Amino acid sequence: MSNKFKRDELINQGLYINGKWQDAQQHFAVTNPADGNTIVEVASADKTQVESAIEAAEHAFKSWRKQTCEQRAEKLRAWFDLVMQHQQELAEIMTLEQGKPEQEAAGEIAYGASFIEWFAEEAKRIRGDILPNIKDNQQSRVIKQPVGVVAIITPWNFPTAMITRKVAPALAAGCTVVIKPPSLTPLSALALAVLAEKAGIPAGVINIVPTQDSSMFSETVCAHKAVRKLSFTGSTAVGSKLMKLCSDQIIKVSLELGGNAPFIVFDDADLDIAVEQLIACKFRNAGQTCISANRVLVQQSVEKAFVHKLKNAMQKLVVGKGQNKDSDLGPLINQDAVDKASDLVDDAISNGARFELEGGVDKQLGALFYQPQLLTSVTPAMSISKTEIFAPVVAVQTFDTEDEGIDLANDTEFGLAAYFCASATDRIHRVSEALEAGLVGINSGAISHALHPFGGFKQSGIGREGSHYGIDEYLEIKTLVQGAL
Is 338 in contact with 389 (CB distance < 8 Å)? Predict the structure, then answer.
């Protein structure tokens, strides 16, 4: 494993099926959001190729599941080492196709790799149980076995981490996978396949089939009898459709869906900490994260002071190309993202919101570059309060009492993440238990880590990723009852 790939050697344009790179009849362009230029043309899988990938995974499952936990762990550890050895090259690829600053991209590579390392270790900790005897000559025990072939669909905003967070526990459990990366950012996924192959992960264990025909992929994997699980990260609307498709075959699902995260600032909060943590939470990936603060709820008595400090901090953020070392925010992913953010802001302003920091599209930098915006006098009835903004836009609402703040925070069908800043110990306990979200940040805007369970309440999804809970999503529980002892 001493040979090191150059960046361009990691950029692949084919499908990765059964350990081999394949072409396809159709192709699609992968573009750089910073300038709109085409990076490469990537093969777009058809139905036959997706079925071939499933069959390869089904065949590989028979032998992969029989490897010992230590053998699987060794392969995963080798993959982790190679990813970290190529951290800079992978970060450069991510910046090319996704736009985030290279330093932030390098951070995602390390974050994504941490799941490979974590689940390499968890492979050795899959435990069953010996149950109490209910008869003198009988013993009952519980074992855990891999689900089987797993279909995986990932989003564009974290093109490496959203793959490793699913693939690593699947492989650690003994499953094999068929992955459809997003057509906007497939290169990061394909680069991971190059390194997985070099790490010695057998042919067919990982299959990657980029395609522009998302419906075809979903319908094909959900109808195939070999596929026993689907893991998806994306919108609630698409997740609902996938869940319905999975119902015919009773396929297990893990769904990490939409969010509408509140960030509450109480009157006893340290406002400097609150601003610092909101900046960290809100502006990661230019606001394009599912756990980004979407509704900033500030207790009335501290709104003026908080907004003043926040505005000063936001004015220091630098928007620019991801290759620039001083850039804090890169471009948004595409024109649809820019239009959505602009429309939400325009609607809010027309309904009484006010600009504290106007920002918006920066045409001098390029069509997809969006300067941070700060709005106040926002109300719960505005569209910007009900919709994931997915842009560097802060929309501030106010509230009077603690109960009102909690009620506002929970007034959404989503429950992925929530944040609040406070000092009083009793308030921290009350609010943290009252918030309806799978992840809660308390005086902290950075809450995602390999050892933390990641997932949501309500329409934000089903299941958990990461942590020791994450591997259970890829295991079946089997009860063995043995008599005549």
Answer: no
